[in-house]
Amino acid sequence: MAAAVVEANGLKKQEKGAGGIDGPTNPMVTPLLTDLYQFTMAYAYWKAGKHSERAVIINLSPSRACVFLEVVAFNGAEIHVSSERFDLYFRRNPFGGEYTVFAGLEECIRLIANFKFTEDEIAFIQASLPSSCEIGFYNYLRGLDCSDVEIHAISEGFVVFPKIPLMRVEGPVAVVQLLETPLVNLINYASLVATNAARHRFVAGKSKLLLEFGLRRAQGPDGGIGASKYCYMGGFDATSNVAAGKLFGIPLRGTHSHAFVSSFMSPDEITEKSLKSADGPNVCEDFVGLVQAWLSKLKVMRSSIPNFCAVALALNDLGYKALGIRLDSGDLAYQSCEARKFFQAIEKEFGVPDFGRTSITASNDLNEETLDALNKQGHEVDAFGIGTHLVTCYAQPALGVVFKLVEINNQPRIKLSEDVSKVSIPCKKRCYRLYGKEGYPLVDIMTGESEPSPKVGERILCRHPFNESKRAYVVPQRVEELMKCYWPGRSGKDREELPPINLIRERCIKQLEQMRPDHMRRLNPTPYKVSVSAKLYDFIHFLWLNEAPVGELQ
Ligand SMILES: Nc1ncnc2c1ncn2[C@@H]1O[C@H](COP(=O)(O)OP(=O)(O)OP(=O)(O)O)[C@@H](O)[C@H]1O
Ligand SMILES: O=P(O)(O)OC[C@H]1O[C@H](OP(=O)(O)OP(=O)(O)O)[C@H](O)[C@@H]1O
Ligand SMILES: O=C(O)c1cccnc1
Ligand SMILES: [Mg+2]
User: Fold this and answer.
1) Which ligand lies nearest the alpha carbon of 239?
2) Tens digits of per-residue pLDDT, 101-126?
3) Which ligand is nearest to the CA of 388?
């Protein structure tokens, strides 16, 4: 959005941030797009550093799930905090499915690359925090950027699963904490709606054209733009959203509305009656008359189909090809079959090549269920226009992405919970996808950072992270490391390129196609296995028991 706004206003184009990366698409994505408590904590971190000469351990949370920070030194207004590592992941696949499409990474990297407070923003933070907050904190914010932050992430468009880190964020605690909210925000809806699009594509089938029509129903302008971008990524073919077409190069498609048709009371309203033929200088002086002549031959069906066909046939006489019709009410299966029969009859009777294949688009409150019902009944729809259910993610409104501390100052941290699905997997980890003989991914496995990677042809034990009895040996035919360095900070590592949206879309389609079909089906899909190495399993449980010693009953 930034680019469009800037150009439309004729203002100077926004400068690129570090690494030559443009700013976030939405200009509302600034360092202020975070929760107040992140600033409250950032102040507390800063303040703690100021008051300690050397290592200080602060317990910031009264709950069992403590956050420990080690401030190793401070230098005037600047604090040096030992490196912190957070994993960003989700706990359950959306829409009752067993897979998720990872989306939103590029916007995260754009935020990181351009993260810098303006004076105006600092003044606002100052006005919002208690007046007792010291001025040095604002000087600290003034110098803050993400040059000390390192991000490893799974590539955008990948199929991903619960518990596996989508992103690992390492860096000084204050800035990483400020990033929590915007990073989760940028991933949550993007991945949810991309997954929703992929699920609609799965039901509709590969051969259908899928059009995203949701702008009017989306949650505000950003919801609309985001929906168009990530539905395309998730496998839609085009959008009706013109702004998204300009911003991201997504193909635009559209038909016309009922209002357009009903705005004409009679053919007499058409003042310009002539039409030039498609391939020459000939002009048909009374095109409306030509249409009416065709109509008189077709008056067999009480619907708008003969009207369309009469226009299409008259256009055909002049060398034009009408594209198709859109059905927007009634029984879409029945009507599409009737329309197809009509088109085929015309092709046969009047010898118009390919008329039988005239495109039929259907719309009106479509969702996975209605697409499935149409498939079961049999239909002749070529393209589906889908709005409300797609872009609002009607079936599930949020993905539930979380951002959890996994290590601080090289000390692993675990978040414990009565609910085992909420227990976090500690440590800086490596994540791999192991493929089987038939080419399908079999299992994702997390290992400790320094463990040797799984090897092709070598048996490895894959364990459920929390359920002792669930384990399997896997002899991978292919091993794919999942996380790559997308923001190296000062590590000197190579930065992974951010590919254009059409390549991410292709990657996503390929990823979805390579999944075993039983993971993808709508009803009772088989869960995909997410595991840890034997070593990491032992370590998780050692840490768990250490953090939660045996209680004593009295
Ligand atoms: N053959 C079909 N099988 C299952 N669902 C269908 C079929 N045809 C249409 N639908 C769905 O049924 C619903 C019909 O909705 P509704 O009754 O509001 O529309 P309508 O009366 O047909 O049209 P309008 O919006 O013009 O009033 C829509 O969600 C549509 O997608
Ligand atoms: O139904 P959706 O999946 O949201 O897709 C987009 C809808 O938007 C348009 O009509 P709109 O709903 O605005 O008017 P209507 O109530 O007359 O269908 C269009 O004709 C579709 O029906
Ligand atoms: O082009 C269309 O047919 C369209 C676009 C948006 C919403 N409804 C229909
Ligand atoms: Mg509607």
Assistant:
1) 3
2) 999 999 999 999 999 999 999 999 99
3) 2
